[in-house]
Write a structure and sequence with these properties.
Layout (H helix, E strand, L loop, with lengths): L5 E3 L13 H10 L2 E6 L3 H13 L3 E5 L13 H9 L4 E10 L7 H17 L4 E6 L2 H9 L6 E3 L6 H9 L3 E4 L9 H9 L5 E3 L21 H12 L3 H15 L10
Bound molecules: zinc ion (ZN).
Zinc ion binds next to loops.
């Protein structure tokens, strides 16, 4: 087996954007030593993530309902998530959170679903992967209301104060393509400042492709471009930096430490 050099800790390989070349996109990452964590965003996409995690040796799943998708859930939605949460290939409840930017679901419904999924994660001793957009205070308050829950703030693009709040909650900061964008000096300042043992990288594929792929459909293979930029900002060697990112990925999502066999 290829040695694992990195994890893409957040890549939606079940997304319809990969319908034409899903296997090939996974294989390009696997051949480069990149493992993939596939987060759900609906019940159907969570089921698809679990299925892919059982099909591919180098893929793991998260199950959860994204804040855009929390309206009109079936009454047994939490029971479905709970059943998947007991699968050893499921490393976290995600992606979950709050999004007050697009408001595709009412804020009250978002808060209710987020709280319920945080409670489920704690009950199953699983971490969470959190999406937060224009909802900073409510997101921090919701997490703080469930003591003991740990996880990752995915696609972190905030400032140092926000990063400090995330770290104080015991969370990791996960950086995606934006860290490579020309105008992102403030975000790179956070990367340089952040404790090296609390940093992860991800693609958020099919979105947010890093430079030099910006504007194209993103894919897990390209997490290496983001990782290279993070490590160079940290001022450490690629070897040291990448092995820290792998260790942090397992620190955040303990089930990644399980061996690769399905
Ligand atoms: Zn995502």
């Amino acid at each position: 087996m290829t040695e694992r050099i990195l994890w893409d800790t957040h890549g939606h390989l079940q997304d319809p954007a990969f319908d034409e070349d899903r296997e090939a996109a996974y294989q390009r990452a696997a051949d480069a030593g990149i493992g993939v964590v596939i987060p759900g965003y609906t019940l159907a996409s969570s089921a698809a993530a679990v299925a892919l995690a059982h099909r591919w040796d180098g893929a793991w799943a998260q199950v959860g309902v994204h804040p855009h998708e929390v309206a009109n859930l079936p009454t047994d939605w939490l029971r479905q998530l709970d059943a998947w949460a007991q699968d050893p290939r499921v490393v976290a409840i995600g992606e979950i959170g709050l999004d007050y930017y697009r408001y595709l679901a009412p804020a009250a419904a978002q808060r209710e679903a987020f709280a319920a999924q945080l409670a489920l994660a704690r009950a199953r001793a699983l971490p969470v992967a959190v999406h937060c957009r224009a909802a900073w205070e409510d997101t921090v308050a919701a997490i703080a209301a469930v003591p003991g829950v740990r996880g990752v703030l995915h696609c972190f693009t905030g400032d140092r104060d926000q990063a400090r709040a995330v770290l104080d909650l015991g969370f990791y900061l996960s950086f995606a393509g934006p860290v490579t964008f020309k105008a992102a000096d403030a975000l790179r300042d956070v990367v340089r400042w952040a404790p090296r043992d609390r940093v992860l990288v991800e693609t958020d594929a099919p979105y947010m492709a890093p430079v030099p792929h910006r504007g194209r459909r993103n894919e897990p293979r390209w997490v290496e471009d983001t990782a290279a930029r993070v490590v160079s900002e940290q001022g450490i060697s690629r070897e040291e930096g990448f092995s820290a990112l792998v260790a942090n990925s397992i620190g955040a999502f303990a089930r990644l430490a399980g061996h690769d066999a399905n």
